[in-house]
Amino acid sequence: MHLIRHLNKPNKIKPCVLTIGNFDGVHLGHKKIITTVKQIAQEENLISAILTFEPHPISIFKPELRRNFRINSLSQKLKIFRNYNIDLAITLPFNHNFSELSACDFIKKILVEQLNIKYLVIGYDFIFGKNRKGNLQLLQEEAKRYGFNIINIEAQKNNEQIYSSSSIRNLIQKGKISEANQVLGHNFTICGTIKHGKKLAHTIGFPTANLKPKTHIIKPKFGVYKVLVHLDNQTKNGIMNFGLKPTIGNNLEPLYEIHIFDFNQEIYGKKICVELLNFVREEKKFSSLNALKKQIKKDIIQVTQF
Q1: Backbone phi, then psi, for 111, in 5-degree steps?
Q2: Relative to the CA of 167, which of 108, 129, 157, 183 has its CA 20 to 30 Å away?
Q3: Are residues 238 and 295 in the same domain?
Q4: Does pTM top 0.70 for this prediction?
Q5: Which residues form the domain of 253?
Q6: How far apart are CA 57 and CA 51, in angstroms?
């Protein structure tokens, strides 16, 4: 997959089938759009392309939501695009100047002149441009003028529930990880660099890899989770606590603590990715470290049984 981060001058991009969106989470609703792009591109011998934005426009329009909002980072999102075998990804910087671009100028200057689109695949609720005035009707009118085609994808549903990024955020925050994963079509994943901790978990026989949450990524409910850990091209089962560690003194900031099963290596400073599979229990304060140790043993037995 080729990646373009700026469109400062006319690009010699081959005619393409394009979709546009934030694609936060790249869930099953997004999957329908992306697979449609791929299908048309193959049938028409065109380039398959995705246009997305960085940062998420919510950080401009609602700056109070900059923290604890996004389901995945840009790097995670691009990795999923690669898994769909998309030919071209364009990540345009979203700022106040860009938000002032009218819908008609966006179509002419970016979609037509820069990206050379022949087909535009959009979701049922797609709107764009200054003051959100760009909609399906405007696109259809401009498509006739510039000679490209519009493919409008209906809302994708599970029974009557529409697949959406907002519903996934709600499920994650409530600790309903397995339900969130079903809507995503893959497991909610956190990634980061392993930090040094106080090594108290090691003293009770359960060493952990510690990750600080990224401020812009949504945080799950405090508690214990069954997880799958990716490290150094290895995949391991594990258990994770996310919270403030109330038994050994409240932290001011929450922390991911991951205990990897059948693993005993020095891994500080390494990159790790953790898939959350199931919610086990809420975080709680125990009367002693010994009581905490007994509960961890019970938790491990539980996660190995489902």
Answers
A1: -65, -45
A2: 129
A3: yes
A4: yes
A5: 187-303
A6: 13
